[in-house]
Amino acid sequence: MLLKELGLASKLLNDFKDMYEYENRLKTFKKWPFIENCKCTPENMAKAGFIHCSNANEPDVAKCFFCLIELEGWQPNDDPWEEHTKRHSCDFLSLTKHFDDLTMEEYYMLEMSRLKTFLVSVNQLILIHASKLECKQELPSLRFPRINKTV
Predict the structure, then answer these.
(1) Which pTM was predicted?
(2) Which domains does the chain have, with CATH numbers?
(3) pLDDT at 145
(4) N or C: more exposed end of the chain, with fewer CB within 10 A?
(5) Cβ atoms within 10 A of the Cβ of 62, count?
(6) Under a CB-based contact definition with an 8 Å cutoff, are residues 48 and 81 in contact?
(7) What is the band of 135 on the pLDDT scale with cuts at 50, 70, 90?
(8) Please, which residues bridge with residue 71 across strands?
(9) Residues 79-100, buried b or exposed e (16+ Cβ, 10 A)?
(10) What is d(CA 56, CA 27) in angstroms, rounded to the nearest whole number?
(11) Contact at 8 Å (CB) between 63 and 69?
(12) Are 35 and 42 in contact (CB under 8 A)?
């Protein structure tokens, strides 16, 4: 199970590197439920760093490609930028210029921040699995008091 999740995290890390481009993020919102007369349009969602990653039960799930925050339960008047900033600190949101205008040094610093976020996420995943494993190993060693039934 852990190896499968680590493999998915590795794939996500690789896939998300293309999401620096606004157009790539925007393409993920083809089935986004909020299109017109609202603040959380696909364009605004993509500008705030989100990609659309819905499933059958949750059609409005969006995840930041950079900080990995995942939000659902969007309402038409929700502002993606505001929702993103009030829930999480994200270096992508602090960019003061367009991605294409970054110097190589600025890009590498930004990418190091993104990689750090993924490493922290993977580390948490490993710790969760390690604690589950410890619990399973401790279960057989639990001793329950014997009850002697004397009738």
Answers:
(1) 0.75
(2) 2-139 (1.10.1170.10)
(3) 46
(4) C
(5) 27
(6) yes
(7) low
(8) 62
(9) ebeebbeeeeebbbbebeeeee
(10) 19
(11) yes
(12) yes
